[in-house]
């Protein structure tokens, strides 16, 4: 049931404050201000390497998880798209934990990657939305993302719930490994508790502006998304969402890679969507933005209040989110990115829920 919404995708975007609070409530103990204790048989202090395999949007949530797990749990994370992972013959030791992220739990390449790791003796964990799925059944430990049924082919709420779960797991791993102090854990868990409220606020605040921007964006044939740190996978997610449902060619790049190639494409016909909360990387991303501006690229600047104050560049549009801790930004910044793809599809008249050539679960290789 779509409720008052035109498409499932729109409904699922607006479901996010509620469903992410379920995910966070399961994996964090907000009363104790720490990540939740779990009896899934995994002890992160006994693990020396984490490997992740997934496809599409699930792969991109894993990539953001890698930044968090390496930073807070000091655990090296190796991640690959499952279609490559399954044939790479990755050497695996028995202190490797292998995680598989899949909304449907049925993706053929992700399942094959899981089977490979099991054969090699790794401990396996499945981050799934569909808990009765094959991937959930075959993994040693199951972590439900609790997003509720996702009908729209383009993944939205599953992505942010995957992020909520990865964020909580990173904190738990940090505690178990002794790399995260109780004070830091408390502060980060508190930040997570703010996500649902910030999401509701942003969903309502940015909607009219994004609708207007979608009209402008629909005239272009190519769009580039840039970001640094956790905003880099988010840039790739923005590009994936746009190309899936609007058929506009889009690419996501690490902002620092701009001068290693893509800058050659920049002219007045190239909109560049820059995702830059006012974090450790902000100044560097702004200098990339200046390089775009100097070549007449059309900038869409997605930032927060501090970021908007700190940059004086002329942009095609600046979307301003509230200030928030760096840790939770990927979850909240997902919203303008999803809405932008959605409204562009609606404006262009493509089918947002059922994009051509795509299926919700890819059960063949
Ligand atoms: C993107 C999208 C796909 C899926 C991918 C993995 O919006 O929906 O890229 O994320 O096919 O699917 P699951 O998570 O079911 O393994």
UniProtKB/TrEMBL annotation:
Its main location: cytoplasm. It is found in: Cytoplasm. One of its GO terms (molecular function) is glutamine-fructose-6-phosphate transaminase (isomerizing) activity. One of its GO terms (cellular component) is cytosol. GO terms for biological process: amino sugar biosynthetic process; carbohydrate metabolic process; fructose 6-phosphate metabolic process; protein N-linked glycosylation; UDP-N-acetylglucosamine metabolic process. It is an enzyme of class 2 (transferase). The keyword Heme does not apply. The active site is at residue 360. Residues 38-179, 213-355 form the SIS domain. Its EC number is 2.6.1.16. Signal peptide: none annotated. It comes from the Bacteria. It catalyses: D-fructose 6-phosphate + L-glutamine = D-glucosamine 6-phosphate + L-glutamate. Keywords: Aminotransferase, Cytoplasm, Glutamine amidotransferase, Repeat, Transferase. Catalyzes the first step in hexosamine metabolism, converting fructose-6P into glucosamine-6P using glutamine as a nitrogen source. Homodimer. This is Glutamine--fructose-6-phosphate aminotransferase [isomerizing].
């Amino acid at each position: 049931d779509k409720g008052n919404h035109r498409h499932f995708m729109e409904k699922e975007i607006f479901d996010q404050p509620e469903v992410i609070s379920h995910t966070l409530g399961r994996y964090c103990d907000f009363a104790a201000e720490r990540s939740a204790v779990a009896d899934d048989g995994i002890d992160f202090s006994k693990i020396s390497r984490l490997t992740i395999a997934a496809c599409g949007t699930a792969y991109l949530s894993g990539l953001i998880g890698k930044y968090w797990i390496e930073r807070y749990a000091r655990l090296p994370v190796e991640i690959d798209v499952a279609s490559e992972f399954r044939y790479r013959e990755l050497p695996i030791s028995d202190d490797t934990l292998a995680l598989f992220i899949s909304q449907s739990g049925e993706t053929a390449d992700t399942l094959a990657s899981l089977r490979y790791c099991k054969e090699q003796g790794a401990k396996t964990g499945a981050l799934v939305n569909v808990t009765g799925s094959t991937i959930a059944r075959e993994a040693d430990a199951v972590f439900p993302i609790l997003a509720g049924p996702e009908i729209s082919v383009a993944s939205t709420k599953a992505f942010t719930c995957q992020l909520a779960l990865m964020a909580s797991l990173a904190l738990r791993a940090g505690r178990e490994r002794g790399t995260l102090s109780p004070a830091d854990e408390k502060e980060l868990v508190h930040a997570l508790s703010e996500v649902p409220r910030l999401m509701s606020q942003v969903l309502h605040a940015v909607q009219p502006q994004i609708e207007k921007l979608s009209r402008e964006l629909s005239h272009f044939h190519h769009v580039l998304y840039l970001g640094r740190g956790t905003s880099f996978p988010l840039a790739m997610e923005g590009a994936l969402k746009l190309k899936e449902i609007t058929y506009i060619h889009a690419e996501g790049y690490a902002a620092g890679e701009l001068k290693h190639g893509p800058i050659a494409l920049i002219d007045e016909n190239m909109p560049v969507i820059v995702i830059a909360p006012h974090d450790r990387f902000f100044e560097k991303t702004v200098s990339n933005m200046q390089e775009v501006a100097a070549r007449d690229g059309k900038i869409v600047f997605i930032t927060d209040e501090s970021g908007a104050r700190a940059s004086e560049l002329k942009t095609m549009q600046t979307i301003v989110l509230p200030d928030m801790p760096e840790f939770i930004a990927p979850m909240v910044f997902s919203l303008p990115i999803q809405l932008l793809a959605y409204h562009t599809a609606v404006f262009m008249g493509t089918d947002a829920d059922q994009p051509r050539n795509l299926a919700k679960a890819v059960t063949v290789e």
